[in-house]
Amino acid sequence: MSKIKIPDTMMVAVLNSYSGPDAITIEERPVPKPGKNEVLVKVAYAPINPSDLATLHGFYGFKDPTPIVPGGEGSGEVVAAGPGLMAKNFLGKKVACTGWGVGGGVWSEYVVKSVKGGVLSLNKSLSLEQGAMSFINPLTASAFIDISKKAGQKAIVMTAAASSLGRMVNRLGRSEGIQIVNIVRRDQQVELLKSQGADIVLNSTASDFEQQLHDACHQSNAHLAFDAVAGPLTNQVIKAMPENSKVIVFSSLSKQKVEVSPDQFIFENKRVDGFWLGPWISNQGVFKIMGLWKRAQKQMQTSLKSEVRKIYPLQEVKEAIQEYYQQMTGGKFLLKMS
Ligand SMILES: NC(=O)c1ccc[n+]([C@@H]2O[C@H](COP(=O)([O-])OP(=O)(O)OC[C@H]3O[C@@H](n4cnc5c(N)ncnc54)[C@H](OP(=O)(O)O)[C@@H]3O)[C@@H](O)[C@H]2O)c1
Known about the structure:
Helix content: 25-40%
Number of helices: 12
CATH topology of the largest domain: Quinone Oxidoreductase, Chain A, domain 1
Largest sheet: 7 strands, mixed
Bound molecules: NADP nicotinamide-adenine-dinucleotide phosphate
Number of strands: 15
Radius of gyration: 21 Å
Order of helices and strands: EEEHEHEEEHHEHEHEHEHEHEHHEHE
């Protein structure tokens, strides 16, 4: 049983229109009450992820009418439970919570979540800081390795590879014997990845980038790429890969369209596909996801660890976002709820 006294009101970050961080206000609202099969989580930390930035501008896959509470994932303690045995079992537990479905986003001191997918128990040994970042990137990195293994790939291409996710994919890939052809956009990112053990790291701004990428893809026999950037880079990647290759676009950091020359589809039998974690999870079945979650928990201090760059109080969310925008590489900005 949780000993935390639940107040009547809480502080919440509210996005009032899809026009970016300036549209966020910090408001006082009543603490919600959990219904059947729901729990009340006292949120501890939540990271600022690229998907949160996309949400603020209305570019993400969910676009509920404003005002909304942003925040795609976080961590906390379950302090109250609604009716239902499953909900009661969560009382007092440390959990990761998603910003999907019941209760919405988690940039809030308290949030109600469904026990059917909205909260997941965290290992006792895991800090709430790491727990806050334990869902989106760790499960996506696990998914990419799973997809690569199923496709029989011993080498894959990864763009925006100095991201938290990219570094996870590198560490997991190494442990699974999968070679990563890394693409970044700055020399410091080349050095960063090399210092962390990556073999192949290419800077997309280098004058001979396309030739280097062609050679790396053909020498390593990489037929699968995971692209977070989109825009012209997708075409460069697909062109550089051998016949019968596939590029999976999973984000659009460049905010540009994917434009691929038709000859790549017609004469080289190459394909472009998409990936979004939520639907991927729904298609895997409960047992597989629980297995992945259990394994990810064990790897959270090693392969799936996220670095924390700075912790800001919820009230300073706009300052945190501004600093994150300036340079995204180098670790997550966490919001501390109270
Ligand atoms: N589809 C899904 O289900 C799913 C799930 C998880 C993550 N993702 C995506 O995966 C990506 C990485 O997430 P993360 O949390 O690991 O990010 P992160 O740690 O915040 O890092 C973002 C990285 O992207 C780079 N970047 C930003 N804009 C770029 C551009 N226009 N061209 C090239 N590189 C650029 C940044 O480099 P600088 O330092 O140079 O800015 C930084 O290295 C994000 O796009 C996110 O949305 C998608």
